[in-house]
Amino acid sequence: MASLEKVRVQLLDGSTGEVLKEVDVLTSADAVKFDDGETFQQKLDAGTLQGPKGNTGATGPKGDTGATGATGATGATGQRGSQWYSGTGITGTSTTAAVFSGSGVSSALVGDMYLNISTGYVYSCTVAGAASVAKWVYSGTIKGPAGPTGPTGATGATGPTGATGATGPKGDTGETVRVGTTYANGTQAKLFFKITS
Would residue 185 count as lying in a domain? Predict the structure, then answer.
């Protein structure tokens, strides 16, 4: 190792260059002071000895995928979907929502549907609730228009011969006839054929 040279430190007058004082060089951290009055040693002990903030470093490589987390708690039960009901308790074709307390639907939700099985009319729920609260409105029918009259069917087969009827009343003798404008008002007369030679 090369030998070290000793350094002589003097305090000089800034204007004349005159040596004012010979001084010893101190190597203690307590000898170095910052602008805020604290020494190097004080900042070192307090952990506040740090330089200015450096530039942001380059982005590091992507880390490995972490382990799968634990399964979360079961969520609350959601509201049921729309349902269809049927019966004859909801009637009419009004497009103004109304309450039908005899519908038989105890817990309707908005969007539920109702089919009147007698008329084929369909209704939708617009206000949810019990039968005394829920409101329904006519929305259409599942019945189409009446179809055209079908063609006449083929003639059926001849039926069997009927039973013999009862014997009628005894008729007039063969030698009599009725004379008149109608049978009902005619008079009875005997018929005679004369043979001529």
Answer: no
